[in-house]
Amino acid sequence: MFRSRDKKTPEPFQDVSQGLKKLYRTKLFPLEDSYQFHDFHSPALEDADFDNKPMVLLVGQYSTGKTTFIRHLMEQDFPGMRIGPEPTTDSFIAVMHGDQEGMIPGNALVVDPKKPFRKLNAFGNAFLNRFTCAQMSNPVLESISIIDTPGILSGEKQRISRGYDFAAVLEWFAERVDRIILLFDAHKLDISDEFSEVIRALKNHEDKMRVVLNKADQINTQQLMRVYGALMWSLGKIINTPEVVRVYIGSFWAQPLLIPDNRKLFEAEEQDLFQDIQGLPRNAAIRKLNDLIKRARLAKVHAYIISSLKKEMPSVFGKENKKKELIANLGETYLKIEREHQISPGDFPKLQKMQELLAGHDFSKFSTMKPKLLEAVEDMLANDIARLMILVRQEEAAMPSQAVHGGAFEGTMSGPFGHGYGEGAGEGIDELEWVVGRDKPSYDEIFYTLSPINGKVSGAAAKKEMVKSKLPNTVLGKIWKLADVDKDGYLDDEEFALANHLIKVKLEGHELPGKLPEHLVPPSKRHQEIDMGE
Length: 534
Known about the structure:
Helix content is 49%, strand content 9%. The chain is α/β, with parallel strands linked by helices.
């Protein structure tokens, strides 16, 4: 009775963050708690997990430029920063915004309710002694937080010297961050077994993963092509998905390029990566919503597995033998649940890992099936999430300019060093002379072969010449609209020259402008533009 009334008049959410917290506490957490989800998969979520700024996790072998990359983004040193060719960063460092510059040690961090790190307490002192927060006032950190990680070591060092489960800690962060950036060194591309193991541990989060091939200015173009091919091949084998991970190539630090041959490529790649990072605050709410849905699906499957195992257990004798048998035949339990509840195989936890975890649990303490708890999660996925999605879109529309600013993000925003400045349709932007005038004599020769009447050629006559470019009609139509400045349906000699200039821009691989830039307006039409504007 109560449930149906709740369905009819759902309580409105004030904002996305509050809605996510409420759904988790009232609908998902009871299911997780009842079936010991937190012992098997992931600790319970706290308010700080929903309130925190977007986080970027940097992962890579030592000396791939992780710490330098952070320094490059912020254009400022951060407390505890160490850079060198040897394994320098031996700690997890959360670089976050704070009015007071300083370091907060791991043990203090995990008791701070305002920080989203309380559940890292479970990894023990060996990890907490290697975890710090560097706080500083920096405009980049007003929008995002960055997690620097220890360089991944080769061989036995990785497993023995750490004293904590490195891959498990990375997986914990991966669940909670908005972007995972894997850094590789183009100069010495070597993916160790440990790095492969770490990438596999992050496998469920490919949607958050981006790859940076750093220090690419240290090799020439031919070597870079080979390195890029080798990297893609290696990643294809490790990640084992049909989709290709996005790889950004460049040299992410503020030093002169050693081999500047690929400067334009590096600039374009850096711009793309910066845009990806700048979009994180705008997409943070949808990411948290997506992660909650993923978690709810796993919690549902986990509840089916645990209740199924409980059902199979004898009430009195032979419990231990039955437990061993059930663990050995867990794959069959998976198939049975898959068929009974029409669940996708991709929603199930990894079989081997689940078998290892089950071995340490007392099956007699497991809960039986509780339909009401599962119904609450089903209702959340079917109805509440849809309501929250509408709210997400409303919040995004209300804050369209929400983006990361400051640091390296400001350097290429505008001015002559902005990406693509003075190229394509932007060519001649700073010149006093009309840039189209340079090639106008050659365009005039063609113009006068088209038999102009009263100094103008018709659309049909211009079309015959323009189609010789082999550009599609949709593009030529846009060029016509831009070139016919006075909108009279004809082109005079200046407009015809402008049309040919725009065709050249497009053929050279640049995009056409949405509106004709001021510096491309023919000189005789500039006073008309002002009149039309008035």
